[in-house]
């Protein structure tokens, strides 16, 4: 009984107080066990460590100042990987400030006590506007379950008024949709789905959903998902606004190479047409936000074809100028 108690305490100490940055020496382990009222000899401690190894615990033995030192390597991530994950969570708008703090604390603990404190202290501070919906985890989990089970989902969807108060669409009546995928784009998380009535893909931000329910009703198969590609969907759309998919040829200033590769991917084919210009032909969802994206670059980007997209862009610009 004393042996089991001692080994359990040893596991607890190694998990809580050691890591690759700060392994615990034999003397330190004996001292910490003694503080817990457990006396142990050096020879017995060696045997206990071997018992842990044989039982499947990843106890790492290192040499520190001519003495053995130990730590348990439990995480599947190294410090650099955890740092990237922690910073990604901090930068994500759809995760509320409270949930961000909880999740980053959990991630930091994966690195062990000392490395965890280090990456928490050196976390990048992002100037990110966090959303306030605390139910995002539940929404993601519910939708993910619905997708895996092939079930429809129901939810209420809201916007904000000028006072920052929630205003539910459809007078608070629920949407019933067939979920297709969860997509992360432009710092927000979206549900891509379609309804039985309209039979066309639509996007909804998960941080603006409430009262999400997985229905006991199978999804209705639809042709609208036939051409859906999970990885190309965010590249084709702009701010996840839906529009007719069209192959658009753009003529761009040479200074926009990085912009194009960031948006459409590093394998995008660019054709040089002058010393300072190149063209691309990419599939996009033609929408007001696509036109707004083009306008961002002024005379450094031109829509060459198809003609109806170019005409639509000019019309949009004229309507904007007429309103100013």
Total number of helices: 11
Percent strand:
25-35%
- Helix-residue proportion: 25-40%
| Whole-number total of structural domains | 4
CATH architecture of the largest domain: 2-Layer Sandwich
Series of H and E elements: HEHHEEHHHHEEEEEEHEHEEHEH
Overall residue-averaged pLDDT value: 80
First-residue to last-residue Cα separation: 83 Å
Output the structural class: alpha+beta
**Main β-sheet: number of strands, strand sense, barrel status?**
6 strands, antiparallel
Describe the oligomeric state of these chains in a short phrase. single chain
Q: How would you describe the shape?
A: elongated
CATH class of the largest domain: Alpha Beta
Model regions low in confidence, pLDDT < 50 over at least 5 residues? 121-129
Write up what this structure looks like.
It is a single chain. This protein has 324 residues and is α+β, with helices and mostly antiparallel strands. It folds into 4 domains: 2-72, Winged helix-like DNA-binding domain superfamily/Winged helix DNA-binding domain (Arc Repressor Mutant, subunit A); 79-121, no CATH class; 150-224, no CATH class; 233-322, Alpha-Beta Plaits (2-Layer Sandwich). 38% of the residues lie in helices and 27% in strands. The protein has helices spanning 2-17, 26-35, 42-54, 79-91, 97-109, 113-121, 136-149, 233-236, 257-264, 288-295, 307-322; strands at 24-25, 59-64, 67-72, 151-160, 166-168, 175-185, 188-194, 202-205, 209-218, 244-253, 271-274, 277-286, 301-305. Strands 4, 5, 6, 7, 8 and 9 form a 6-stranded antiparallel β-sheet that branches. The chain has a 4-stranded antiparallel β-sheet with strand order 11-12-10-13. The chain has a 3-stranded antiparallel β-sheet with strand order 1-3-2. β11 and β12 form a beta hairpin. It starts with a helix and ends with a helix. Mean pLDDT is 80; it is low at 121-129.
